[in-house]
Design a protein that fits this description.
- The protein has four domains: about 10-60 and about 175-350, Alpha-Beta Plaits, CATH 3.30.70; about 65-135, MutS, DNA mismatch repair protein, domain I (3-Layer(aba) Sandwich), CATH 3.40.1170.60; about 375-485, Dna Ligase, domain 1; about 505-620, no CATH class.
- It has 28 helices and 19 strands.
- The strands form six sheets. The chain has a six-stranded mixed β-sheet.
- The structure holds a DNA duplex.
- Keywords: DNA damage, DNA repair, Magnesium, Metal-binding, Nucleotidyltransferase, Nucleus, Transferase, Ubl conjugation, Zinc, Zinc-finger.
Length: about 625
DNA sequence: TATTATGACGCT
DNA sequence: CAGCGTCATA
């Protein structure tokens, strides 16, 4: 929780005794839990005439093994079976950083976080693949495309697939398994070790024994078996394992890529199961194995507990495993966490999470970014402009491909910046982001908008003698808010954009106030807040409205900032104004002089000197106690 | 200087 | 809702 003073939690109620122990930002830390609050899909537990068997939801996680390495090995198969790594930025620090390593390389002692040179030291024969570079940055296209290939295969098998990252996806198997259940129960189909292929059973030594046990119970008393949710769930799990095994084999057949899988009752459990036997194996995690498994599972290794919340649990409760967490009573948890989080943790500790698998096989945003560390840090307009051009070059290709393949287009362009006062002294800087409407996939337009947004923000933090006061150590742009179809006339801003290109005088293009109705997509014009209700001219540009609020939000930075928000004229900026205009004129040569009238408006006279200064000095929020 | 480059999502 | 923080993984 970033903006309160320690006496309110994230629900806004008054903190009870003990809650302050955790520090003011606990609520923010607990956000991770919120997405897991969907109600249980108890529908699947209901036995009806149509649906006589009640089973728990069945969820699988498919995770590609050292994916980037596999992608490279498919291109150069002669290296298969040998230690191999994928690094990016070969010419940089220690031969480039490792982002993927083969299991052969792991066996030879190569570690994550090693660099290429480290890897060669422990394993001289290691094959080093280098991520392609384009536009001066790492280009991950080939891995994204390979990931899409895999997803396509998965969609062929299952309706509900959630792309969780470039190389992993959750699958809800419940429906498919339910359909097959009667045929397996009736012996029309048979569960065999062969059908389960590379399956392991968590906390069990043999798939055969586990299956035998299952069938023994079924033979013994079929009616009792069907009536027992425990038995039925195990049976369903085995069917799920067959389906996932088939899927994994098909992925190999179609893509040549190998993967691991986890099959259980929730995202958390299937994710955990998937990691138990890697690579090229899948693991079933039955309900009765959760307890024993949790006894030896580190809290940090459980999904959603790998970050601050997990560390906070470990420190506050002086425990380290899920088994120990399971023994902690809810009231004890409530000493450190909110009511909801306490209950969520208690459920999780017994293996329950109700987060549904979302049916989504496409990314929701498409972006690119790059770090600029040390002397690479950007501090001039020229540098920022240049990199925006590079980013847009990459992004526009990806966006156009996405548009053609998926019949959708982005409506929001977001610029993200991390900046520091001194790139040699500060490790982590201030992050901020600003956005503008995305109205076309025209490179020039995107560069213009992205640079304007970035420059406006950085300049507001200080600009003198051709340099920003702050050095940019990370810069990125991202396209999001995908809408169906292409850019149409109904996309209001594309109308404005089109006019802009014609170089027609603004006052003729926007003669009346009727434009206010069109100004913001999908929003009631009456709700638009334009601060001082300026003339139409000031709001005409598609990004002007956004730029009007481009100054950093002090109150969002760390809570008490608002106390110091006196506004004051930044005299040094005023001095540099003419300089600003000149430089921009050159930088934005590609754009039209007609825009320059607007450019001037992008630099209002008033800036918050105090705020800008403090933003640089004030850094991270405190670490949880 | 030193993981980097992505991506999803919740809160205010 | 725009912007920030958290979590995650190649």
């Amino acid at each position: 929780m970033k903006s309160n003073t320690g006496h309110r939690n994230d629900q806004g109620r008054v903190a009870e005794e003990g809650e302050e122990v955790c520090g003011e930002q606990l609520g923010a830390m607990e956000n991770a839990r919120k997405r897991c609050q969907a109600p249980s899909t108890s529908k699947s537990l209901m036995a009806t005439e149509d649906d006589p068997y009640k089973i728990d939801p069945l969820i699988a996680l498919i995770d590609m093994d050292c994916f980037y390495v596999q992608v490279e090995l498919r291109l150069e198969p002669e290296w298969r079976g040998k230690p191999a790594i994928v690094v990016q930025y070969k010419t940089r620090h220690k031969g480039g950083g490792i982002i993927a390593l083969s299991y052969e390389a792991r066996e030879r002692g190569v570690k994550r976080f090693h660099h290429a040179d480290d890897a060669r030291e422990v394993c001289p024969e290691v094959k080093v693949f280098v991520v392609p570079e384009l536009h001066g940055k790492a280009d991950l296209t080939r891995y994204r495309d390979a990931g899409a290939e895999v997803i396509r295969v998965m969609k062929k098998h299952f309706h509900c697939v959630e792309r969780a990252s470039v190389d992993e996806a959750f699958v809800d198997l419940t429906k498919e398994v339910k359909q097959l259940l009667p045929r397996y129960l009736s012996k029309e189909l048979k569960l065999t070790p062969e059908a389960l292929g590379s399956t392991c059973i968590a906390e069990s030594h043999s798939v055969e024994a586990w299956l035998d046990q299952l069938y023994l119970k079924l033979e013994e008393d079929p009616e009792a078996f069907v009536a027992s949710s425990v038995q039925l769930n195990n049976f369903a799990l085995a069917i799920g394992a067959v389906l996932v095994n088939d899927l994994r084999q098909d992925i190999i057949n179609v893509t040549e890529f190998h993967c691991s899988g986890g099959i259980s009752y929730s995202k958390t459990l299937s994710k955990l199961a998937c990691g138990l036997n890697k690579p090229r194996k899948q693991t079933v995690l039955p309900g009765n194995a959760v307890g024993p498994l949790f006894n030896k599972t580190n809290i940090i290794d459980v999904r959603m507990l790998g970050g601050k919340l997990g560390r906070s649990i470990i420190e506050n409760l002086c425990i380290s495993t899920m088994g120990e967490l399971c023994k902690v009573e809810v009231p004890k948890l409530r000493q450190y966490f909110s009511e909801e989080t306490a209950r969520w943790l208690a459920s999780l500790a017994v293996g329950i999470d109700n987060e549904p698998v979302q049916e989504r096989d496409l990314p929701k945003s498409i972006g690119c970014s790059k770090n600029f560390l040390g002397k690479e840090a950007l501090s001039t307009r020229e540098q920022v402009k240049k990199w925006m051009e590079h980013f847009v070059s990459e992004l526009s290709v990806r966006l156009k491909k996405d548009q053609a393949e998926n019949n959708r287009s982005a409506s929001l362009l977001t610029v993200s910046i991390t900046y520091v006062k001194d790139p040699f002294k500060i490790k982590s800087g201030q992050s901020c982001s600003r956005c503008a409407p995305m109205t076309s996939y025209d490179n020039e337009a995107m560069v213009y908008d992205a640079f304007m947004v970035a420059d406006r923000l950085l300049t507001s933090l200080g600009y003198r003698n051709g340099r920003y006061h702050y050095a940019v150590i990370n810069l990125g742009i991202s396209a999001s808010k995908m809408r169906d179809g292409g850019f149409t006339a109904s996309r209001i801003d594309s109308y404005f954009r089109g006019q802009k290109k014609k170089e027609v005088d603004d006052s003729q293009i926007f003669p009346g106030n009727k434009y206010s109705e069109l100004k913001v997509k999908g929003r009631d014009a009456s709700k638009i807040q334009l601060g001082k209700a300026k003339e139409v001219r000031e709001r005409k540009g598609s990004i002007t409205k956004y730029l009007n609020q481009a100054s950093p939000r002090k109150d969002a930075q760390g809570g008490q900032a608002s106390h110091h928000q006196q506004q004051k004229v930044r005299t040094e900026h005023m001095e540099s104004k003419s300089d600003t205009e000149t430089r921009l004129g050159q930088l934005l040569q590609a754009t039209r002089s007609q825009r320059m009238g607007k450019v001037r408006r992008l630099f209002p006279a008033r800036f918050t000197d105090e705020g800008g200064t403090r933003l640089g000095g004030r850094q991270r929020r405190r670490v949880p106690q």
